Amino acid sequence: NIAKRILKMANFLKEGRTRPYTVIVEGNIGSGKTTFLNYFNRNKDVCVLAEPVEMWRDCDGYNLLGAMYEDPKRWSFTFQSYVQLTMLQQHTKETDLPIKLMERSIYSARYCFVEQLKRDKVLSGPSESVINAWFNWVTSNKNLDVDLVVYLRTTPEVVYERMMKRNRAEEKSVPLEYLKSLHKIHEDWLYYKTLHHCPAPVIILNANLDRSNIANEYEKCESHIFNKEV
Length: 230
Ligand code: DGT
Description:
Order of helices and strands: HEHEHHHEHHEHHEH
Radius of gyration: 18 Å
Strand content: 5-15%
Shape: globular
CATH architecture: 3-Layer(aba) Sandwich
CATH superfamily: P-loop containing nucleotide triphosphate hydrolases
Structural class: alpha/beta
Distance between the termini: 21 Å
Number of domains: 1
Number of helices: 10
CATH topology: Rossmann fold
Helix content: 55-70%
Largest sheet: 5 strands, parallel
Bound molecules: 2'-deoxyguanosine-5'-triphosphate
CATH class: Alpha Beta
């Protein structure tokens, strides 16, 4: 075990990395990203960055997540701008640990959610252009590279049931149709790779499994994360 650790560190130093080996965890709403992160939280080599949902619920006292679901036409641009900022903060957050594990990314915010808002004609043309201009600038001028994508693949009906069960106040009115549509976008982006650009190699896990059976699936990607190879 110690030898493995030393080897890993040596590889890390050899690569002369200026940033940690970065893994992003993607998947539909309710696909189990938080559970996945918690599983790896116990490892002392991993800096785990959960999604800043709490910040979205309280930006100077404003619940932007709630506002976005209540009146998407009015608030999606505001919400998306803040999501993009908080994701940028996560991507650029410094750590001395060799591995960084992030819940979602600036990429899924743009490639999945902004895409969805565009398809639903919720974002106006000018609003979309401003979001895109920011996205294009930061992704070209800052190092937001990732090394691995873990795609928690689910079916919309399963995640809809989970979402209803967890009963987050803001998500009460989210229909199954929305999850179906987001599912398709995730599939096209990370499974079929026909939509936008995939920022790193992808590992696909069956995240329909319930909590008692999911550990085996998680173990599948443990070696990819810790040996840092795909
Ligand atoms: P998990 O652990 O897989 O159950 O993850 P969730 O469902 O807690 O996390 P996530 O990112 O799928 O979604 C949290 C809430 O925030 C959910 O209502 C969707 C929403 N959300 C996340 N990112 C964006 C975004 O960029 N745009 C929009 N419109 N909504 C977003």
